[in-house]
Specification:
Largest sheet: 9 strands, mixed
Strand content: 5-15%
Oligomer: single chain
Strand order of the largest sheet: 5-8-9-2-1-10-11-15-16
Mean pLDDT: 95
Number of helices: 34
Shape: globular
Distance between the termini: 25 Å
Low-confidence stretches: none
Number of strands: 22
Structural class: alpha/beta
Amino acid sequence: MTNTVQEFKYDHPDRDVAAFKRAVANKLMYAVGKDPVAASQDDWLHATALAVRDQLVERWMATTRAQYAQRLKRVYYLSMEFLIGRTFTNAILALELQETVKEALADFGVDIEQLAEREPDAALGNGGLGRLAACFLDSMATLGVPGFGYGIRYEYGMFRQRIVDGQQVETPDYWLTRGNPWEFARPEVSYRVRFGGHVQRRDGKNAPYGAARWIDTHDVLAVAYDTIIPGYGTQATNTLRLWSARATAEIDLKAFNRGNYMEAVESKNHSENVSRVLYPDDSTPSGRELRLHQEYFFVSASVQDMLHRYLRNHSGFDELPAQLSIHLNDTHPVLAVPELMRLLIDDHDLDWDTAWAHTQKIFSYTNHTLMHEALETWPVDMFGRILPRHLQIIFDMNSRFLAQVTQQHGHDVELMRRLSLIDENGERRVRMAYVAVLASHSVNGVSELHSELMKQSIFADFAKLFPERFNNKTNGVTPRRWLAQANPPLAKLLDHRIGRGWRRNLDQLEALRPMAEQPAFVRAFRHAKRENKLRLANWVEQHLNIVLDTDAMFDVQVKRMHEYKRQLLNVLHVVTRYHRILDEPDAGHVPRAIVFAGKAASAYHMAKLVIRLINDVAATINADERVNRLLKVVFLPNYSVSLAEVIIPAADLSEQISTAGTEASGTGNMKFAINGALTIGTLDGANVEMRDAVGAENFFIFGNTTDQVASIRATGYSPRDIYEGNVELQRTLDSIRDGLFSPSEPSRYQEIFDALVNWGDHYLLLADYASYVQTQEKVDALYRDPDAWTRMAIHNVAGMGRFSSDRTIAEYSHQIWRTRPVSLG
């Protein structure tokens, strides 16, 4: 084998234009199998992608070899979502090959921008959770952190959203239709994942106490697909490994020979459903069961893979905590905890205490929500039927933990009830977040406010027991995708004025502060914003046939549709604004183009109703010539990473208006600010730290604070009193209730009116309405002075250095994972 390796030679891909042209030509001919005369845009994209991928493979292998040689502790990042967006432009940005690729393709008569638009978004996520995971992978590679992402290779990702008659219609998004040139199929890397069956105690002198056999299971194979994650400005890369489900038996040949063709493939189809769709509809029992299958499927394969990799270089498990760090991105991957325990005890004969000690040193957990309804729990009956061995392990974890609590704090039944991993109120349920907290040596929130509230609310008892575990790691975004790639006009301006170093050290943006007083820079900054607004306006005209005035303020709220994010509060302001313009058309109103985008979960009735209201309000306002030059409203369908890259750089105003105390962090708020949008928002999530970083005078804060929200709810809240006491609010709500925007069905939005006025207004929209509207008036006043507005926008960009995901990952690496970067000669 040694001689074979020494004799093994290959061609190193060169980076000049001529070499790259030849590489693309070879890929088109020999990999895609197309003559250039007959090649489609997709063929050229596939060939170019393969040529770019070749530029990454050698550094990928070198990084992997170096990580092993240096015996580095690896970070395994487990996430149900990785919203990585388009890979083509991101890869050539990381390789700094933009001009080479552009020139090479131009010689073939191919436009690189048109080609890039042909690549589908990898539909592996929904919103902030998945996009954060993608930013983190980028930063890990850029900093040389030896990281490995694990997730599911969904065939149909988050649905494709269409708007039909103003309503969201979900259609499948088969993003793999034209193949995926960026992935490497690894059919030799597969693991058996088991479900159902029953458990037998293992007897014998070599069996550790409590060890068991899990038998008579229904099995699925998890097959690996690898994608290279390149670092920027470094030779280092990492890997994203996604699992695809395959049946253990392709076909029931006996059923086929009987002529029962559907029965012959039924078991195969059932097995492979596990990786078919991101987030099955959880409004049905079958949907919830499939979700549990998905979560266990990917963590079981991942943990088996980690142990397999570890055991190639180790004969025992003493070094396991020194070589592995497993990070849980929210509660979805928490089944990795009992799975690691099962493998160590049942398959590798470790005793419970040793396995548990290893587990607590290996796991760390990020919490992403304070809302109890969003903290994952599973009915004990369902859990035990699908994962009987894991339920046993969790019961054992719980009994040992509660015995320890009793020993230390006495027989406090109420305390034990609150701390138990099993919720005994009503239907017994497994509390997955509690399992994560108990098993992890580190538990972090994602903004200073969120981390503090986390200790005071959902994990208050655990924080008293284990105060050393709780910490904060404020989220960040990668400046490579969200500024360098998404905003070429501003990136070019920054390069000219402060150099290119900000891509790896975002703190360098601080150098922009004095430039806010330089008229020439202010004009150049405003020109860059105008270019981005024109790009978005062209997109809207092309896709929606609506013309936006680029001199108008682009007022933008794009994010997942949810009641706590309060898109509905934004709509109330839009309707109020509409009435004001009609009442006083010559009052000097600031023109606004108000942009919404976001998907509602398929079973989320109220969120889908708000989407319909937005579209009905837009249709009415956009058709009203009396307000046409002063107000436009658009809902952009099928929000995605690539669409965000068009929208966010164009925004003048960023709407971050969640009820204080509900948004853990937000990362959209950071993306908007780094691209020169001003923020109107509540003191929620990372808004608090952003305001401090850019200066309170450069931020539009409104509404009740977290403490005030808690006080309002504690002392009794009457939204009807607010409704009856505010004439303008009353008019706004009445017009929605009475069918001004739905004349063909006047009662269409009675439910929205009732939710706000009669049913408690859970997210306090009416309590914040007056403050919100008044603050919007301050926004208008500033926009009337373009230089003042632009100076404030520059200060926002200058203050965003702290909100790079590189800073976040450096903190995770040093303080939680305790690993060191790979050294590449």
